[in-house]
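Researcher: I'm preparing a figure for a lab meeting and need a structural model of a single chain. I don't have an experimental structure, so a prediction will have to do for now. The sequence is pasted below. Please return the structure as tokens so I can convert it later.
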Amino acid sequence: MIAKSPHFALHCRDLPSFEGQVPGTLPLRNEPVIGALLPKRWAKRAVTRNAIKRQIFQVVQEFESLLTGFAYVVRLRHAFDRTQFVSASSSALKEAVRHELLSLFSTASARLPTASHG
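Model: Understood. Here is the structure written out token by token.
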């Protein structure tokens, strides 16, 4: 884990170099590989999980140039308070998730080693 926030954890792995690539293997990717792990335990409704995933992928686009060469998993670690965020489509929840993810990726990008491929 390279960064965490009250609701999220960000895990990172270096992508292997594909120099001298064997035919039939995956090509070198210029963009980061991103995964989102949102357990039903912490986001019971599919609409909530989907809204959070959209925010994750939108924030990743803003940091894409800094994240190249790595694979990431954003993991939801705790539920957002349903009394505070009644609707999964509320602008308050979207803004809270976005703010926390921006902070998470800012912290992570400062801790990343430089990619060894390119």
